[in-house]
Design goal:
Length: 200
């Protein structure tokens, strides 16, 4: 994808969902007339509605009411990291930051009852694995009380915005050198190197 060239709607949705699936910890922003509400939370793709994301907030968090009244945007940060000019083959370069990001714009609607229970089970399964903890381990009365303390929601995504800055404007030799330098780094750097290699 050429640097700064907006992808088509379908391509943006595919890339956006991929970033959200791989990096589900998001920043959710809802603009109200008096103030923007911001929360940091896990949002997962809805298995039954491909253009939706599922999440929940504490009922005591004022954002949980605001997001049902106004459009929101969820921001997902994918692979990212510093790029040193020392890594380039070409001289005279400057430092930069490579990254992938996705913005999911949409309107949230409440999820409750059995749907909320299923949402919590999906969250647990994503991070616990098939043999891990599930909400079924909590007594029904306690689980019901916990669910009353949260607001589950489905964010219906109407638009994805994505940006992938992965050294596309550098020479093939520079890109290869950056990938090699990142591959020698930590886990996050190696993730970025792998994504850059896939983009070639």
């Amino acid at each position: 994808m050429p640097l700064y060239q907006p992808p088509s709607f379908a391509a943006a949705a595919n890339v956006g969902r991929s970033i959200a699936d791989d990096f589900p910890f998001a920043t959710l922003i809802t603009q109200q007339p008096d103030t923007p509400w911001l929360s940091h939370l896990v949002l997962l793709p809805d298995p039954h509605h491909p253009d939706c994301l599922l999440g929940h907030l504490a009922a005591a968090n004022g954002h949980s009411a605001a997001l049902l009244d106004s459009p929101s945007v969820a921001i997902f940060h994918g692979e990212h990291g510093y790029v040193s000019p020392r890594w380039y083959v070409t001289p005279g370069m400057v430092p930069t930051w490579n990254y992938r990001v996705a913005h999911a714009h949409g309107q949230a609607e409440a999820v409750d009852g059995d749907e909320l229970t299923a949402l919590l089970a999906q969250l647990a399964a994503r991070f616990e694995g098939p043999d891990g903890w599930t909400p079924a381990a909590v007594p029904d009365t306690a689980l019901a009380a916990m669910q009353r303390a949260i607001v589950g929601f489905r964010l219906r995504v109407t638009r994805w915005e994505v940006k992938e800055k992965l050294s596309q404007n550098r020479t093939p030799q520079d890109i290869a050198a950056v990938i090699a330098a990142l591959q020698a780094g930590d886990g996050e750097q190696r993730q970025l190197a792998a994504r850059m290699a896939q983009a070639q």
